[in-house]
Predict the structure.
Amino acid sequence: MTPIRQTLLFAAALLVAGCDMLGIESAQSVAERREADGKAVGGACRHAGRALEDCYALNRKAERAAVFAGWREMNDYMRENKIDAVAPQLGAGTELAARPAQAEAVESKATPDAKAAKPAPGKRAAHES
C-alpha cells in the first residue's frame, strides 16, 4: 500500500470511530434512552396513583411496554416499602383542558333561577355594591 492510501484508510477509521464525539447517536443508544424515559414515566404515574390506562393516554409518545415496566417496578417497590401514592398537585394538560367543559356541563344542569341569580362574569351582583 502506498503511504497516501494508508493515511486515507487511517483517517476514515478515525472518523468512523469518532461518531460519538460528533453527536451522532447510534440506534442502540436512542432505543435505550426511549426505554429509560418510558420507565420513568410509568414509575411517576404509579407514584402519583394514576391508572395504567390513564398513563398511556397522557403519554402517547412513550413506548407502552416501557411505561408498563416502569409502572410495575414502582408498584412492586411501593408495596414492599409500604409507600402511599402521592396525589398530583397540578393536573395534566388534558385534565386542565377538560375542566372548563366540566364546569359548563354543571352550569347547564343548574335550574333557570340559579342561572339568573348568578352575576355575569366581570359584573358585580346588586347586593355587592
